[in-house]
Specification:
Elements: H1 13-32, H2 34-60, H3 65-73, H4 83-97, H5 102-105
Length: 106
Amino acid sequence: MSAGLDDVGAPRWELVLSLLGCWVLVCLCLIKGVHSLGKVAYFTALFPYVVLIILLGRAVTLDGAVQGMLYYVIPDFARLAHPKVWCDAAVQVFFSLSPCWGGLIT
């Protein structure tokens, strides 16, 4: 952690190397031309789903995963009597309409 905006600190080499790797991949795709962009599009469209499936498999194998999924799926209807729940729901609805409204309702 740095002291503030004036002191940015030393670069983190892991991030610098990953950024360099990303730029190298972009340059290679641009050098190869339009012919390689179809393959890149397939990779960038499908790879996030592969990662999500891997993360889902990891999350299901953790301790307490069943209790967490049941808490998410089975509603607690007694909480609907609390006005704070309805206020939070209204804030979420207004925020989902437009990100620009976020500052107006908080």
